[in-house]
Amino acid sequence: MDENIGQKSSFSIASSIQKIYEEKYKQLLIIPFALLLIAFVFIGYKFAATGEIINKDISLKGGITVTVLTQQEVNLLDVKKSLYSKFPENDIAAKSITRFGAQSGLIIEADIRQEQSAAIIEELGKILNKKLLPHDYAVEIVGSSLGKSFFKELIIALVIAFVFMALVVFISFRTFIPSIAVLLAAFSDMIVTLAIVNILDIEISAAGIAAFLMLIGYSVDTDILLSTRVLKRKEESEMDRIYGAIKTGLMMSATAIVAAIAALLVSQSEVIRQIMLILLIGLLIDLINTWIQNVGILRFYLERKSRKHQHELQG
Amino acid sequence: MNYKAKQIIKNVRVVIFLVLLVLAIVSISPRPWVDGVAIRSVVSNSAALESGIQQPSPTLSPVNRERILEINNEPIKTVENYYGFVNTLRINQSIQIKTNKKLYRLTVREHIDTIELNETEKKVIDEIVTINETVNNSIVQTNKTIKKIIDVPKTRQISKGVEDIGIRVFKAPKTNIRKGLDLQGGTRVLLQPEKILDAQDLQTLIDNMGERLNVYGLSDLIIRDASDLIGNQYILVEIAGATEEEIRNLLAEQGKFEAQIANKTVFVGGKDIVFVCRSADCAGIDPSSGCTQSAGQDICRFRFSISITPEAAQRQADITRNIPVAGENNRYLIEPLELYLDDKKVDELSIGVELQGSATTEIQISGSGTGSSQQQAIFSALDNMKKLQTVLITGSLPIKLNIVKIDAISPLLGEEFLRNAITAAISALAVVSAVIFARYRRFVISIPIVIVSTSEIILLLGLAALIGWNIDLAAIAGIIITVGTGVNHQIVITDETLRGEKFAANWGERIKRAFSIIMTSYFTVVVALIPLIFAGAGLLKGFAIITILGASIGVFISRPVFARVIEILLRN
After folding, report:
1. Cβ–Cβ of A164/B527 closer than 8 Å?
2. CA-to-CA distance for A57 and A68, rounded, in angstroms?
3. What is the pLDDT of residues A49-97, one digit of tens each?
4. Which of A132, A150, B274, B549 is the most buried (most CB within 10 A)?
5. Shortest CB distance from B536 goes to which of A150, A259, A279?
């Protein structure tokens, strides 16, 4: 008996959600737009405070990254403190590499100059109580001017990519508002993801910016699916076509999300981890931007179109 | 079911797909049974090179690299095995190296360093001179050998123990997939010229560096122009298996070469030298003076000819015109021609009196090498000759290069990263498969998706192996993403097909609908990644290219096959 009631109540919750989703789509648009606005405020605040819109890592601001794989349990704070005592003028970060939750290595980042790279590696060796030989570690040294130009370039690449993508979308749909809806969804995905990445205090590397680029590709996938189904198909009711798109689209997002989570959990490589983390956040945000924002705008557009159509018929 | 299987096998698309898959596997040519070590490079003038072991060609595919199987009948299975064995070698020990190609015999040499002392000693050398003689009232030139005593700095030879036999090895590759630097270990340096060069100068610079680094016995070397979108010029140097320090040292040796007479520059390397002879007819051990013995030391002289530009020849003439003649027989000028490398004097050559004031463009450069036996002296002379030739050919780099980025990855770490990245990719594929099984609950749908996704990875790796593209960490991220989009597209195809069932649209129409969605999303991914090929000094090029290739393979090869297979399987 009890079970039945439970089912019934959950059914009624689901149906009321469904009702809101179907009928109040204009009001629901507030959610994605509010998110976008909040994201802009956060990014704007960050820009006002630091002059930067992202936290750049060493590959974009210059400095050194040393990666050591070690089974030795080390306290990151201690490592950071003792390195800081030797290089007091520099910004030093110590991160651990984890694999299935266990520490398997160490990443040291410092904004020091090239000439000091040997010194910091030696110092790190002292902390780990062994002499670090070249085959024990990986080191990446980036000049600061290079980092700056990398950043500038990747941003240019991102803008060009977005413009290209916009062209493809316009050519494919040939209608203004639905195309704009797709672009807005992709744009919102990037902005909101960037704000979340900033809030999580993640330092973005060159590979991370590549991930934002990928996000353009991934996020428009579901939008294209939605728009194609809704605009180019005629068989079912509009709402049924949307539900059909949701069914396929959620499946697409689900596979991408689980793949990203798996890679994120298993991988020790900062490159892969960062790409996957940004994709993961973006894909989650994309659920809102596709199924609320893009759907809302599309329905709004279709409603206006059919009203116009009726008007014309009447006239 | 049997009927359907037959239909699938007979389908033209499926046949093409299977053929391509086989070709991809052939191109990857996995050889899991291969162990041992492969030869990465052979150091020039080493015992190994003398014994006939070939410097591997950089275009050789990884599994065709020469592999060392045994040394002195002891199997060599790992890199540690090899270096462990090499460390036990004694001077003059004969060893046999058995590779998968040949058996080589070589003798371990002694590493001898010659240091110059602050004293000079007298040395008697044989020299052939051309003198004018009057025979029958006409002047003819004849060659005569004369003994000559010259002052040379006293040298002492110190043994530094066993000389390295000169083979660099790495773990033998089991497939033809070329691993990027971050997966196999090595060093990558990004250099920026101090000022912007035009395309030709930049190419010359890159050629010079290539030549110079090659002379140091490095294969697995990539030097390329990495100029970017906003007009920055970079040169990317990647050397597999080299440490950061080694590369820094090598680049530091990219010095400038200058020849001076009486502190005046006559010619500089690269610019003024038009030709350096390296063929046997005009370079090698000097046949006229050959080898001599003195104070228990063997000395061999080498010579080679170079051509300098007329301008440099004229400078030479102008400078030497007023230099007095000295030496016995008045055969040499009082000031020698001094060769400087990086402002350090590396050699000094006497200038024959016949060159005084004449603008000769052909110059004979000579020098010597010493050793405790004649053979050693020959080696040493040839070694010195080669170094000098390289310096003269490549000359000074026209511009100073700043190191703007260095990445050094140890081979051990690279291996760990690779293993880990493969685990990550397999886990991603596994969970995606699980989600698909959970959603469709029909093996006829989920099994083809898993098979097609796996074969997309194989096709992509096969293509990468074929075109010699390196797979690095970013490329692996690209592969994971490709599989992700691939699965998405197959979901679209499946759902369109299933929807079509409901609305009784014909098969062709359903597939067409699915592909209209897929093609749009494919083009957005491709155009989004194109700018990345050119941005950021090409460091993310691998990621962009692999992802674009993967998406293209999927859209044009494997996903149409999937659509056809699903059609056959689902049709009643």
Report:
1. yes
2. 18
3. 988 888 888 888 888 888 887 777 778 888 888 888 888 777 888 877 7
4. A150
5. A150
Chain A CB contacts of B405 below 8 Å: 140-143, 146
Mutate to test the interface with B, among A221, A223, A243 (most CBs of B within 10 A): A221
Contact residues on chain B for A250, CB-CB shorter than 8 A:
none
**pLDDT level of residue B215 (50, 70, 90 thresholds):** low
Say whether residue B406 is in contact with chain A using an 8 A CB cutoff. yes
The confidence score (pLDDT) of residue B43 equals 72
State the smallest CA–CA distance between residue A210 and chain B in angstroms. Answer: 8
Residue whose pair of structure tokens reads 């494997």 in the numeric block? B558
CB contact under 8 A, A206 and B540: yes
Binning pLDDT at 50, 70 and 90, where does residue B315 land? confident
Among residues B452, B516, B511, which one has the least CA distance to residue B483?
A: B452
What pTM does this model have?
Answer: 0.75
| pLDDT at residue B461, as a whole number | 93
> Letter for the amino acid at B184?
Q
**CA B466 vs CA B24, B27, B180, B211: distances in Å:** 8, 6, 15, 26
The CATH number of B186-254+400-407, from 3.20.20.70, 3.40.50.2000, 3.40.1190.10, 3.30.70.3400, is 3.30.70.3400
Smallest Cβ–Cβ distance between B524 and the set A67, A153, A168 belongs to A168
Q: Does A154 touch chain B if contact means CB atoms closer than 8 Å?
A: yes
- Strand duo B235-240 + B186-193: pairing: antiparallel
Q: Find, among B177, B80, B183, the residue nearest to B409 by Cα.
A: B183
Instruction: Write out the CATH class of domain A30-55+146-306.
Output: mainly alpha
Instruction: Give the chain A residue whose CA is nearest to the CA of B526.
Output: A217
d(CA B31, CA B561): 29
Are B239 and B186 a contacting pair, CB within 8 Å?
yes
* CATH 3.30.70.260 domain extents, chain A: 63-142
For B402, the closest chain A residue by CA position comes to A143
Give the pLDDT confidence of B172-190 residue by residue, as tens digits. Answer: 888 988 888 888 888 888 8
Q: Are strands B401-409 and B283-285 parallel, antiparallel or unpaired?
A: unpaired
Q: Rounded CA gap, B167 and B50, in Å?
A: 12
pLDDT on residue B16: 92
Please state, in angstroms and rounded to a whole number, the distance separating the CA atoms of residues A188 and A39. Answer: 9
- Superfamily of domain B37-109+163-168 in CATH is PDZ domain (2.30.42.10)
Q: Does A262 touch chain B (CB under 8 A)?
A: yes
For residue B22, give both structure tokens. Answer: 């086989």
- Residue B57, exposed/middle/buried by CB under 10 A (0-12, 13-18, 19+)? exposed
CATH 3.30.1360 is right for the domain spanning B258-383? yes
Say whether A228 and B520 touch across the interface (CB within 8 A): yes
**A239 contacts chain B (CB < 8 A):** no
Per the model's pLDDT, the better-predicted residue between A220 and A9 turns out to be A220
